[in-house]
Amino acid sequence: MSENPREIMEFDVVIIGGGPSGLAAAIRLRQLAPDTSVCLIEKGSEIGAHILSGAVVEPRALDELLPHWRKTGAPLNTPVSEEHMLYLTPTRGYRIPILDRVMPHMRNHGNYIASLGEVCRWLGAQAEEMGVEIYPGFAGAEVLTENGRVMGVATGDMGVGRDGKPGDNYAPGMELRAKYTIFAEGCRGSLTKQVMEMYNLRKGVDPQTYGLGIKELWEVPAELHRPGLVQHSFGWPLDDRTYGGAWMYHFGENLVSYGFVVGLDYPNTWLSPFDEMQRVKLHPSFRPYFEGGRRLSYGGRALSEGGLQSIPRLTFPGGMLVGDTAGFLNVPKIKGTHTAMKSGMLAAEAVAEAFLTNRVEPGSYTRRIRESWLWDELRGVRNIRPAFARFGMKGGALYSGIDAMLLRGRAPWTLHTRHADNETLEPASISPKIDYPKPDGKVTFDKLSSVFLSNTNHEEDQPVHLKVRSTSMWKTVNWDVFRSPESRYCPAGVYEVVDEQAAPALQINSQNCVHCKTCDIKDPTQNIDWVTPEGAGGPNYPGGM
Amino acid sequence: MKVLVPVKRVIDYNIKPRVKADGTGVETAGVKMSMNPFDEIAVEEAVRLKEKGVATEIVVVSIGEAKSQDTLRTAMAMGADRSILVETDSVTEPLAVAKVLKALVDKEKPDLVILGKQAIDDDMNATGQMLAGLLGWPQGTFASKVELHDGKATVTREIDGGLQTVELALPAIVTADLRLNEPRYASLPNIMKARKKPMEKITPADVGVDMTPRLSIVSVAEPTGRKAGIKVGSAAELVAKLRNEAKVI
């Protein structure tokens, strides 16, 4: 398709991704250097369309970036007023007040419950007002390099048929060239993956580990709504070897954000994160809130859990990584928005300096990160998530208590992540099967009616954007050994096994894909490659998500 | 030849609309909006006429809130030359819209107005017909093919049970149906260029139109859910159920 020459546009800075980190970088750049031309592309149909988070937002970075946000209509309107950490058994939920005390990083006083999608739409409007050129609906498909330096990205071709041939409405991609390119793709960015390989950015750091968050947005009867309530749970229904738990946040006008995170280092191939999420709603600690309510939306997204030990080299000639594509999420805090924004701001500062000194690699970014509160924060909690991986849920909780209370995050040792998430699955033959309850259509639902609420769509006639490298590998490993874990971990029903009895084969319903990236992460042999589909495809999360 | 294409900003067709909890309307806060798909077809048809050398200028117009300028930018990225935003926060009922459009037609003097046959938000299917009535122009609605020659338009219409071909003397109104064409993408280079195309901003008052609604919405409700199906054991049982329970035979 390269016979059609692509048009070229030159900018000072190109940012890939319109989430909190990319938008914060864009805004900071225009604050520091108002003459800098900044172009931001976003694969979602609009800013916020692909944003999925709880979210309890710590406003620290926002305070630094736009100090007057409270007066200028930022959609952070529900302060956290009440907070519970529950340990669940199959029938009871125990409040663990000591956990609130020993884990200072869990305290949410001063934080806000919000829709991160709405926050991003607002940030996007601020950025546009400041002169950032924002182009939603265009996916970065290719990293442009010249003499070993990243020179920007090219957007994907539009109107390519399923057979890979240009159709009637074919429109070639465009080269967006820049002196500096900031990758802000969120967890497991597809271009970031290429850049990491090109510049060997992961050399000498722990493998990144991930979680999968699956979320529902509910509207509940006013008498059940307790604005400001934050409830987290751990324990049932996950076994001790599986990291994760549920969240429930009450905010806005009778809205409840409910969701479930599972660490993608889970060993049981029969585990279905979607069904775990559904069945926790039936627990007496959660169920009453959903009775008589109405489910409004649904979605899923992977998040980085590796923390400090897994952060790659952050810069390379011509650019840098910011936000969760670099892995700045604070896992024990269950928050990454403030760190993502902070990293974007520091990247902007480094780029502004690099312009002055004409440097190829904006290397001062790494130093700025290490000197910031972001680094202190991640260093303080660096052992907690690895402790759960090593000692199990109960041992991990005990370790966290000791780490937080006695050592105050200053342990002289560092626990390392030993396995990437794709290496942890155990064969189907030795994994205990899990019996999930059937959806009742009122509180619990099946996968397809859920995906329907994510407003997901992809242009039907386009190449499949989930590339299975080897179908024989799928048969001998994914099917014969693990019985198709992708059909369970995918929260959107993309992967389906057909003809199970006679000749099992994998069917990929790529139109359903909500861009969570879990398959790219968890596939046992890394046989699935997630690449960007035609721009504007994917979910369209509505306001409130 | 000048073509005028009115476009409307509506909830994106990929979004499942949600009725507000109080039943007063459909939730639009934070919901993705885009150009009414039938209007996209109308814009595409105009752009194709220009590419064929038949049309010389395409003017797009949108009546609605300030954000409708995004819709106009999209139309210009597809190939329209300039745009007019008639800014109003009022409800946009077909008659008021048609009156605004009539005023703009009087001013712009296009030879052809192509509209979407209906907007997917209220499904009124009235603006094109009302505009034709106000102007006293011939109309070719539900068009699946449009050919222009010698001051005339031959329009193939999709009607119940088949196709009807009509010939209209220009100036005329055409409303676009689904099969008229497949709209192009607004490509990134063209979106960038469209930022520099002219956009005139006026209000309904500037053209002397009162937007006060004439219709009042009594209530808005979601369709009732479908009942679960059942399996029957025999043809006799099926017939019995169709007769006694469903009461359809």
Automatic annotation (TrEMBL), chain B:
Similarity remark: Belongs to the ETF beta-subunit/FixA family.
Swiss-Prot/TrEMBL cofactor(s): AMP
Keyword terms: Electron transport, Transport
Coiled coil: none
Biological process terms in GO annotation: carboxylic acid catabolic process
Subunit structure as annotated in this protein's UniProt entry: Heterodimer of an alpha and a beta subunit.
Protein name (record): Electron transfer flavoprotein subunit beta
Domain Electron transfer flavoprotein alpha/beta-subunit N-terminal: 23-211
PROSITE patterns: ETF_BETA
Organism of this sequence: Novacetimonas hansenii (Komagataeibacter hansenii)
